[in-house]
């Protein structure tokens, strides 16, 4: 009974709680929340249930114990994610991280036609210009035409059977210095040329458990598909 009353207060915005008890930050990681006091976890469970209902998503049971169990289950499955992420609808679109992971995972099979898969990632001239603009794009069009000549293929080493992905956007990359450090140093030269808001991926084929491997830094989602345009700074040298 007492737990139900506390939970009801939390759902109403915590008006009856002292300020310190309402200091819940939904942008903090789930792993941090799982180590927090029970009062904080209840507040998060109530906040999440209310947000999911407001967004038209399944909210689950409103019983406090079940709601807290639901929050714990979600957080244990993704301890590094922010609590706020758990109330967002899943992104199943073609530009999502899951979609690009599925696309690139096809290269991991030794039975795959990797040359054909590579050609699927070849950019068209309009793709290049859409990402890099008319000046740099015009310089890069012939470079990528030569790079993706028939027969060229992305081929992971035999023991590189896993994949790591950094999924972001050109806008996020321009504004986040820490994120820029995840890309080659020469990539900084491209920032003034990149169009805004384009999904961007850096990926590696690696041995399971390894961080380093065969790396590619320029996979962009443009005109409804993923295209690979690596080392675009070479267009600044011509």
Structural class: alpha+beta
Radius of gyration in whole Å, from Cα? 23 Å
Number of helices: 9
The total of beta strands comes to 4
Largest β sheet strand count, sense and barrel closure: 4 strands, antiparallel
For the termini, the CA-CA separation is 73 Å
Average pLDDT number: 81
Shape: elongated
The sequence of SSEs as H and E is HHHHHHHEHHEEE
Structure description:
Residues 1-22 and 55-62 have low confidence and may be disordered. The longest helix has 23 residues, at 125-147. The protein folds into 2 domains: 2-87, no CATH class; 97-236, no CATH class. By secondary structure, the protein is α+β, with helices and mostly antiparallel strands. A 4-stranded antiparallel beta sheet has the order 1-2-3-4, sandwiched between helices. The protein has 9 helices and 4 strands, in the order αααααααβααβββ. The protein is elongated and about 60 Å long.
Tell me the layout of helices and strands.
Blueprint (H helix, E strand, L loop, with lengths): L1 H10 L18 H5 L3 H17 L9 H14 L19 H9 L8 H7 L4 H23 L14 E8 H6 L1 H4 L18 E8 L6 E10 L2 E4 L10
Antiparallel strand pairs: 1-2, 2-3, 3-4
Helix pairs in contact: 1-3, 3-4
Structure summary:
It contains 9 helices and 4 strands, in the order αααααααβααβββ. With 238 residues, it is of the alpha+beta class.
What are the key terms here?
2 domains; 238 residues; alpha+beta; disordered N terminus; 4 strands; 4-stranded antiparallel sheet; elongated; 9 helices
């Amino acid at each position: 009974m007492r737990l139900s009353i506390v939970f009801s207060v939390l759902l109403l915005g915590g008006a009856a709680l002292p300020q310190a008890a309402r200091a819940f930050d939904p942008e903090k990681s789930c792993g941090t929340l799982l180590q927090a006091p029970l009062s904080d976890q209840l507040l998060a469970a109530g906040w999440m249930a209310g947000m999911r209902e407001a967004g038209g998503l399944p909210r689950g049971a409103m019983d406090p114990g079940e709601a807290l169990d639901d929050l714990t289950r979600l957080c244990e499955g993704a301890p590094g994610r922010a609590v706020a992420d758990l109330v967002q609808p899943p992104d199943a679109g073609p530009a999502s991280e899951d979609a690009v992971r599925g696309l690139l995972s096809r290269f991991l099979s030794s039975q795959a036609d990797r040359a054909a898969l590579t050609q699927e990632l070849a950019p068209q001239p309009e793709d290049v210009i859409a990402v890099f603009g008319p000046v740099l794009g015009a310089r890069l069009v012939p470079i990528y035409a030569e790079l993706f000549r028939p027969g060229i293929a992305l081929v992971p080493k035999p023991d590189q059977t896993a994949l790591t992905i950094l999924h972001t956007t050109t806008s996020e990359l321009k504004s986040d210095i820490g994120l820029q450090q995840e890309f080659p140093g020469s990539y900084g030269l491209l920032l003034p040329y990149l169009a805004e808001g384009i999904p961007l991926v850096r990926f590696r084929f690696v041995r399971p458990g390894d961080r380093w491997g065969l790396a590619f830094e320029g996979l962009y989602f443009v005109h409804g598909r993923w295209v690979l345009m690596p080392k675009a700074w070479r267009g600044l040298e011509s």
